[in-house]
Amino acid sequence: MKRLLLTSSLLASLTLSGYATACSEPAKPDAFPDPASAVTAQMVKANNEVKAYVKAMEEYLGCSGMSRGDQKKAVKDLEEYAESFNKLIREFKARG
């Protein structure tokens, strides 16, 4: 009985710690490349990083347990972040 209880407790703690690790706020990518001097490879890399960050943030918001108001603010901040990158993409494309 003790062994079953110990095993159950261990499995529960591993499951919860895995969930906590999976639900941590992702780090925002480094600064964007300068669209006036960036090469295509830099912009593609930055685009992939932004997409991955946005997806990770969406997953985080789904599991974070934030209040509705905090979630709305986080979504608004995420939209502003994505739009700032989209602006740089438009500048980069206008250059060439």
Characterization of the model:
- The longest helix has 28 residues, at 68-95.
- The protein is an all-alpha fold and 96 residues long.
- It contains three helices and no strands.
- It has one domain (25-95).
- The chain has helices at residues 2-22, 40-63, 68-95.
- 76% of the residues lie in helices and 0% in strands.
- The model is unreliable at 1-20 (pLDDT under 50).
Structural class: mainly alpha
How many E strands? 0
Give the averaged pLDDT, no decimals. Answer: 84
Give the ordered list of helices and strands. HHH
> How far apart are the first and last residues' alpha carbons, in Å?
71 Å
Largest sheet descriptor = none
Overall shape: it is elongated
Number of helices: 3
Count the domains.
1
Q: Work out the strand percent.
A: under 5%
Radius of gyration: 20 Å
Helix content: over 70%
Instruction: Enumerate the spans where pLDDT stays under 50 for 5 or more consecutive residues.
Output: 1-20
Observed structural traits:
elongated, 96 residues, single chain, disordered N terminus, mainly alpha, 3 helices
Write the layout of secondary structure elements.
Elements: H1 2-22, H2 40-63, H3 68-95
Helix pairs in contact: 2-3
State the gist of this model.
The protein has 96 residues and is an all-alpha fold. The chain has helices at residues 2-22, 40-63, 68-95. The termini are far apart.
